[in-house]
Amino acid sequence: MAKNPVRVLVTGAAGQIGYAIVPMIARGVMLGPDQPVILHMLGIEPAAEALNGVKMELIDAAFPLLKGVVATTDAQEACKDVNIAIMVGGFPRKEGMERKDVMSKNVSIYKAQASALEKHAASDVKVLVVANPANTNALILKEYAPKIPEKNITCLTRLDHNRALGQISEKLNVHVGDVKNVIIWGNHSSTQYPDVNHATVTTSSEEKPVRELVANDQWLNIEFITTVQQRGAAIIKARKLSSALSAASSACDHIRDWVLGTPKGTWVSMGVYSDGSYGIQKGLIYSFPVTCEKGQWSIVQGLKIDEFSRGKLDATAKELIEEKSLAYSCLN
Ligand code: NAD
Ligand code: LMR
C-alpha cells in the first residue's frame, strides 16, 4: 500500500541550499524512494518571485514522489502540519566573517519562526537548523518553542562529519564509504573538534583504526583538524559563496539517518540537546556522536576521552556558552 505523504518544510528555499535541497527531497534522497512528500517552501517578500520560480521548476521536473508544493512568505501557512522542518532561511557569512558575525540577523528570525512551528507544525515535528550560527539558532528555536520536545530540535554538523570522512579518504586513498566513526564535537564553527580517535577504515573486510593507518600524529592532530574546521571558509574563498550542494546533501543524510536509523556499528555527528554527557553543560545544542533507531537519536556513551580531546571538547563548549549570551543580548 502506498505510504501517506510526509510534509517537509524548507525555509529560505529560494536560496542556494534551498535550490539544491528541494530536488533531493522530491527525488527521495532524504526519506527514501518509496516515501511521497509534500514540500512546503518559505521565503521572504523580496524573494517571493524567485520562490515561485522554484515551485514552477519543481512542477516541470515531474517528480513521481512529489505530491504537492506550498510556496509562501507566510510562516503560519508554511509551517502548517509539517512533519520535518529544514531551517535554512537566513543570511550566510561572507569572506572574512566568522559564523557568529551573522548572529544578530539570524537569531531574531529563529525566535519568530519558533512560535510559528510550535503553533502550526505537527506535534512531533523533527527540526534541523542549518542556518548559521546553527547551534545557537537551534538553541533559540528550542527556548522559544517549549512545546516542541527538546529531542526534536537539532542542528547540522553532518557536513563537518562528512568533510572529516572525506579528508581521511583522500589521505589514505580509500573510498569514503569505507571510513566511519569520526566525530564532530561541539559547535559548527572553527572551534569544533573533529576527532579521529575512534574512526576506522574497512579494507578487504578488515576494520583498522585510522590512527594506525595514517600513522602521522602531526597530520592528524594539526593539519586534519584545521582543514575540517576551516573548510567552510575555504569554500567561501573559492566559490565566493558558502557551501551549498554539500550542505544540502549532508542535511539529507542527517534527516535520513534520524528517521530511518544509522547502520549497525556506525555513528554519525548531530548537533543535539546536551543531557550532560561527556561533561558538557546540559541544555546546549552541542554536536555529539549519535546512533539513531526508530526515529530517535541517542548519544554514544562510554568513549574514552584523552587529555588532548578533553581540552578541545571544553573549548568548543565555552564558545557555545558565550554565543548563547551574545544571542540573548541581540534579542533584548
Ligand atoms: P542564501 O542567502 O543563498 O539563501 C538564504 C535564503 O533565506 C534567501 O533566499 C533569503 O531570502 C531567505 N531568508 C532570509 N530571511 C528569511 C526568513 N526570515 N524566512 C525565510 N527565508 C528567509 O544562503 P545559503 O547559502 O542558502 O545559506 C543559508 C544558511 O545556511 C546560511 O546561514 C549559511 O551560513 C548556512 N549554512 C550552514 C551550513 C551548516 O553546515 N550548518 C552549511 C552551509 C551554509
Ligand atoms: C559551511 O560550513 O560551509 C557553512 O557553515 C558556511 C560557512 O559560513 O562556513
From TrEMBL:
Indicate the enzyme's highest-level EC class: oxidoreductase
Under the heading InterPro entries, the entry gives: L-lactate/malate_DH, Lactate/malate_DH_C, Lactate/malate_DH_N, Lactate_DH/Glyco_Ohase_4_C, Malate_DH_AS, Malate_DH_NAD-dep_euk, Malate_DH_type2, NAD(P)-bd_dom_sf
What's in the keyword line of the UniProt record?
NAD, Oxidoreductase, Tricarboxylic acid cycle
Write down the SUPFAM superfamilies for this protein, in alphabetical order.
LDH C-terminal domain-like, NAD(P)-binding Rossmann-fold domains
Any idea where the Lactate/malate dehydrogenase N-terminal domain is? 6-153
Domain named Lactate/malate dehydrogenase C-terminal: residues? 157-325
What EC number(s) is this enzyme filed under? 1.1.1.37
Q: A GO molecular function for this record?
A: L-malate dehydrogenase (NAD+) activity
Catalytic residues?
A: 188 (proton acceptor)
| Binding-site residues for substrate, renumbered to this chain | 93, 99, 132, 163
| Source organism superkingdom | Eukaryota
- What protein is this chain from? Malate dehydrogenase
Q: Which organism is it from?
A: Pyrus ussuriensis x Pyrus communis
